[in-house]
Amino acid sequence: MLIYRTSSGWELEAAHGGRIPVPPQASGQLTTREDLYEYLSGLNGEANPAAGHHNNLIAPLEEQEVWAAGVTYFRSRTARMAESEASGGMSFYDRVYTAERPELFFKSTPHRVVGPGQPVRIRHDSKWNVPEPELTLLVSPGGRILGYTVGNDMSSRDIEGENPLYLPQAKVYDGSCALGPGILVSSEPLDAATTIHIDISRAGASVFTDSTTLAAMKRRPAELVEYLFRENSFPNGCFLLTGTGIVPPNSFTLASGDQIAISIEGIGTLTNPVA
């Protein structure tokens, strides 16, 4: 079951096509109340679809913090080591990849998150910027995975590579995170064969495209959530980006005007221009 947030409220995708508007009195805390998901399940296939499809989608979150995991794919490990080595620093990312404890870091507050069609940003003080396509978990206040969406963890690789202590500056800034297009509400883990695909176009031509699957992910989503909730509380639940297995070559950097399209099977495609 897929749910979307629009500028006029929340909508449920009906099994027979169209979308079902969720009444305002029921959608006040859509992504923070588990009983509301039961309510939505009861609507699926029983209500009349909304007339037409809405294009006014916004990021599918309300008051949740967004967190992220790093070095959960071997490809990400390799890229992070290259970042550090390019700036003459010593890399410890190989140890992070093999350690029991995962890398977890704060990514965004809601006002820094953009939705489908809204521009992500690159820092003016960075010269090496990339998107990071990631499966993103919607987690309840109690630490249960409620659903999944598509995430883009924008990163300034040169800033992070210069010094690991600069990670917050490389990762956290206005327009550094995109989520959408909707939330796949499911209590079941996604299949390991689920594909994540990215395509970046410039002046109408593709300049980078690649794919991976969840099978390449070293850590289980439930493991990442368990570590995130150690000594941490999330009264409104949270979103957790689970790391990337797709990294453009070192010669590539985003430019203003680029278009980023990230697709995950069963969830949809998140498309954002670069400001």
* CATH architectural label of the largest domain: Alpha-Beta Complex
CATH domain topology of the largest domain: Fumarylacetoacetate hydrolase, domain 2
Number of domains: 2
The end-to-end span amounts to 32 Å
Percent helix, as a range, is: 10-25%
Stretches with pLDDT under 50, minimum 5 residues: 27-33, 44-52
Q: Give the overall shape.
A: globular
Number of extended strands: 17
Order of helices and strands: EEEHHEEHHEEEEEEHHEEEHEEE
CATH hierarchy class name of the largest domain:
Alpha Beta
Work out the radius of gyration: 18 Å
Query: Treating each run of at least 4 consecutive H or I residues as one helix, how many helices?
Result: 7
Explain what this protein looks like in three dimensions.
There is one protein chain. The protein has seven helices and 17 strands. The chain has helices at residues 24-27, 34-43, 74-86, 93-98, 157-162, 167-171, 221-228, and strands at residues 2-6, 9-13, 19-21, 57-58, 65-70, 103-108, 113-114, 129-130, 133-139, 145-153, 155-156, 177-185, 195-202, 205-213, 238-241, 259-264, 268-273. The protein starts with a strand and ends with a strand. It has two domains: 2-57, no CATH class; 65-273, Fumarylacetoacetase-like, C-terminal domain (Fumarylacetoacetate hydrolase, domain 2). Mean pLDDT is 86; it is low at 27-33 and 44-52. Strands 1, 2, 3, 4, 5, 6, 7, 9, 10, 12 and 15 form an eleven-stranded mixed β-sheet that branches. A four-stranded antiparallel β-sheet has the order 14-13-16-17, with no helix packed on it. A two-stranded antiparallel ribbon has the order 8-11. By secondary structure, it is α+β, with helices and mostly antiparallel strands. A hairpin with a 5-residue loop joins strand 9 and strand 10 (145-153).
